Amino acid sequence: MIVMGIFLMVIAWRLCKCTEGWTARLIVSGALLLGFGYAVMMPLYDAGIIERFSPSGRYHGSGASAVAWHAVKLVVMNSGWLVFGLGLALHAKVFAPAPAKSQATSLTHAPRESVA
User: Fold this and answer.
1) Predicted TM-score (pTM) of this structure
2) What single DSSP character describes residue 48?
3) CB neighbours of 89 closer than 8 A, spacing ≥ 6?
4) Which terminus of the chain, N or C, has fewer Cβ atoms within 10 Å?
């Protein structure tokens, strides 16, 4: 998990070298959230330092802290993927307006002339 968090930060840094503005900010902030989630929070869950949320309600420590850490994990990971994906979509110009079609004049029908 730690390697994945670091890898996301390296990818974000490489993408943002050639990007500027809000696109770069969104990519980096999403990668920071995901990097924190994958490199810090998930290993702490796996090590048992942060207690997992359990619907059965059996906790060694405080149930409120387990629910709070679960909420923090959900917010960090879901908002991280949302912001990172939005930044990648902006980088790929998914939301760019479609190019305007040129109005070609067709001369298939010539105007009629009156001879009378």
Assistant:
1) 0.72
2) T
3) 95
4) C
